[in-house]
Design a protein that fits this description.
CATH topology of the largest domain: Cobalt-precorrin-4 Transmethylase, domain 1
CATH class of the largest domain: Alpha Beta
Strand content: 15-25%
Strand order of the largest sheet: 10-9-11-1-12
Number of domains: 3
Number of helices: 10
Order of helices and strands: EHEHEEHEHEHEEHHEHEHEHEEE
Function: Catalyzes the conversion of 1-hydroxy-2-methyl-2-(E)-butenyl 4-diphosphate (HMBPP) into a mixture of isopentenyl diphosphate (IPP) and dimethylallyl diphosphate (DMAPP). Acts in the terminal step of the DOXP/MEP pathway for isoprenoid precursor biosynthesis.
Helix content: 25-40%
Shape: flat
Binding site for isopentenyl diphosphate: 45, 78, 128, 226-228, 270
Keywords: 4Fe-4S, Iron, Iron-sulfur, Isoprene biosynthesis, Metal-binding, Oxidoreductase
Family: Belongs to the IspH family.
Oligomer: single chain
Bound molecules: iron/sulfur cluster
GO molecular function: 4 iron, 4 sulfur cluster binding; 4-hydroxy-3-methylbut-2-enyl diphosphate reductase activity; metal ion binding
CATH superfamily of the largest domain: 4-hydroxy-3-methylbut-2-enyl diphosphate reductase, catalytic domain
Radius of gyration: 21 Å
Distance between the termini: 35 Å
Length: 325
Amino acid sequence: MTAVRRVLLPAPRSFCAGVERAIEIVERLLEQHGPPVYVRNQIVHNTHVVADLESRGAVFIAELDEVPEHAVVVFSAHGVAPAVEREAAERGLDAVDATCPLVAKVHAEAKRAADAGDTVILIGHEGHEEVVGTLGVAPERTVLVESAAAVPALEVDDAAKVTYLSQTTLSVTEVEQIAGALKDRFPNIKGQGAEDICYATSNRQAAVAAVVAEADLVLVVGSANSSNSNRLVELAAEAGVAAHLIEDAGQIEPAWIEGARTIAVTAGASAPPALVDEVVAAIGATGPVEVVERPVTEETQEFLLPQRLRSDDRRRLGSAGARDE
Ligand code: SF4
């Protein structure tokens, strides 16, 4: 008789309030205006979400010069530099901002610090769209740091006037390490540890951390360019557990699950919940499974849509009760 496998489902997992809001913005614009609705960069870092919206008339572009005059263009959840907003205005585009409010908060902090004359040290990964946008808030006054090892080489105008911020989707542990190195080098530095890491990123990391010791294998549903998804894989791997990032159930290698008695399945904040269900079903197709939810917290974060897209009921998005988290 085949032994029963346990499938642990750490929660929260999958969509966050910022991702739901960004997707809803594109959906409502498609309803209101009809296709095409242009979207600068991937609305969120998930190939399934992008393909679905594309099939309904969204057109994803890299630069605004690909958008016809006066057309509707959406800025993605990762945010844009002010220069991009200016370019859209100059070209007369109908821009709708789907930047996650928690990314916008980091932009506001960067502006406030730079306006006060501080050098802003941004902890983040070079080239990530969110980092490109945040660096663009005060490009003359912001430097990027990617690791604690890089802190000694940082150049700032005045070591007494420094503020640090971070990308919202990093590893809590790593940001705390880098923040510690920054405080050692700049005793007067302003900043709030890992506070810029968003609730969704830190909750998903805490949920995986709570089950990883029991798991023989961790599967993280998410796209290769999803920062918070990659951090979940790293967290499991650092705990010594085999971990894989998969787009969907089709990427599961039979050899991974063959000897695994307990498998944890989670998803990054940009991955649709249905993909997790499909992964669980695929594991179930290999033999009997016991599926166990493992919540560490309940998410209640909600974000309003931009004013022009709110319906009369002023519906809020991202409520854990209303949506499948
Ligand atoms: S992962 Fe965090 S910062 Fe990114 S959209 Fe979700 S809530 Fe916002």
